[in-house]
């Protein structure tokens, strides 16, 4: 009996070890396949120590995004999907909140009940992940910072197509806002150095270069399922942009409804609104408290 137990334990241990080694080897092979078309960029000592950036198809992405791209490509776009796409810190949150209110017939109560990350999941981010987005009911609202060429192919090929709203910001302001985000955050993409170093590095920051991203989307500005709006337009005449977005989404609004959305989306209102101001990032340790808020000056 004792010999049988020893033999059983040995076989069990050996089988467990073999399985673990097999899974480790398979993950290594998958990683190798995933990164074979990428070029790792030289390390910048001012970035977080565990951040590695890669050049993929002319764009710069952290490893986390590279790992998500194969799954992103499998997403089956639906005709009633709405994507809000932008380079980071170029008006994304502002446009997302406008789109959410238009799409929900001005449901301010639900907008206040859940934070924007829950209402508008981030396509290529690990949370909640593509698998969770796939399970959402119809009329999905999805955020992304990807260029046109790296969105799921079905976004461009399905008929009827999903609707995509791209928001852009002047390159100089975009550079400054991206710097503030990287300097303020304490995530893997945190950057701890002076602005002059950032300007030299800007073509090689995550999701960059910004001008390549903008050019791709500008070339598709006349696609029937694409609307391009700018941060500057929002500042100049937010009511006009709200109406343009509403007409694009085939959800025309009355003047009083446009004004209600504009009031809700004023910078002072957004900055005080815990559902959109990312204050929860502070509790999660994502923000350097000494460096200010996610929303600073609008």
UniProtKB/TrEMBL annotation:
Alphabetized GO MF terms: estrone sulfotransferase activity; sulfotransferase activity
Entry-linked InterPro entries: P-loop_NTPase, Sulfotransferase_dom
One Pfam entry name: Sulfotransfer_1
Domain Sulfotransferase span(s) in chain numbering: 79-298
UniProt GO BP: sulfation
EC number of this enzyme: 2.8.2.4
GO cellular component: cytoplasm
Domain of life (superkingdom): Eukaryota
Keywords: Transferase
Family: Belongs to the sulfotransferase 1 family.
Name of this protein: Sulfotransferase, putative
Species, as recorded: Ixodes scapularis
Species classification: Eukaryota, Metazoa, Ecdysozoa, Arthropoda, Chelicerata
